[in-house]
Write a structure and sequence with these properties.
Layout: E1 9-18, E2 21-31, E3 36-40, H1 47-55, E4 62-66, E5 73-76, H2 90-96, H3 111-123, H4 139-152, E6 157-161, H5 169-181, E7 187-191, H6 195-201, E8 204-209, E9 211-215, H7 218-226
Parallel strand pairs: 3-7, 3-8, 5-6, 6-7
Antiparallel strand pairs: 1-2, 1-4, 8-9
Helix pairs in contact: 2-3, 2-4, 3-4, 4-5, 6-7
């Protein structure tokens, strides 16, 4: 990456309100490319709103958000938005991530798209499950398959809203291992309830409670949380 300043993600005085209730206000920070940023804060504090703003799913009422030109964001929501009873294999799910435009029922995937899907599946450790139906996966395997779909999209930025929600600690650890291996390759934002684990892994941290405080050293936020900073 030639010019890190140009490739920074920059929020400038961002505010977003749901009607008369403002979820976020006065949000300003910049983050370098290739970094992993942990989003920490209380429920209802604005973490999901910030991720959706980053992904372009919401537009700020006030302020600006700058992403590097041409960089796509792949968003992994907290709740899966597809029917796991639908007859879809892991490979088919991940291939969907390679489509920029709307899916056509007659779409044929290129060799490059198939290679991208296979690589993404291998990156999350699901190669031997490639042809398995998504309804046959454990919760942790399904989360990893959804992350593989995000990787296959070739997006430079991946925004994950509590990818560990509903997982036991072992399954969550598998998800974290996948994300840890992507550090430096992708710019990653992750909101999580496993605070200490994510802060140990992250390069930066944002404490989000209606506004945002940036911690260049996530360990300092971890210490403040231990000292009683309210979540």
């Amino acid at each position: 990456m030639h010019n890190d300043m140009e490739n920074e993600i920059v929020f400038s005085n961002v505010r977003y309100c749901y009607g008369e209730v403002c979820a976020l206000h006065g949000v300003s920070f910049s983050l370098p490319p290739g970094s992993m940023t942990a989003l920490i804060g209380p429920n209802g504090g604005g973490k999901s709103t910030l991720i959706k703003l980053l992904a372009g799913l919401l537009r700020p009422n006030v302020g600006t958000i700058r992403r590097p030109e041409g960089w796509r964001v792949s968003y992994v929501p907290q709740d899966m938005e597809f029917d796991i009873t639908f007859p879809l294999s892991v490979r088919e799910l991940v291939l969907m991530g390679t489509l920029v435009r709307k899916i056509s029922p007659f779409r044929r995937y290129t060799d490059a798209q198939k290679r991208a899907a296979s690589l993404a599946i291998a990156q999350v450790g699901l190669s031997k499950y490639e042809n398995r139906g998504i309804g046959q996966l454990s919760s942790g395997q399904l989360k990893r398959a959804v992350i593989a779909r995000a990787l296959a999209s070739n997006a430079a930025i991946i925004a994950l809203d509590e990818p560990d929600a509903g997982l036991d600690i072992d399954a969550a650890r598998d998800v974290y291992a996948v994300l840890h291996n992507l550090k430096g390759e992708k710019t990653i934002f992750i909101a999580s309830h496993y605070v200490s684990t994510v802060l140990q892994m992250a390069d930066k941290a944002l404490y989000i409670h209606e506004t945002v405080n940036l911690y260049d050293d996530p360990a300092k936020l971890n210490d403040r949380l231990k000292d009683g900073l309210m979540l």
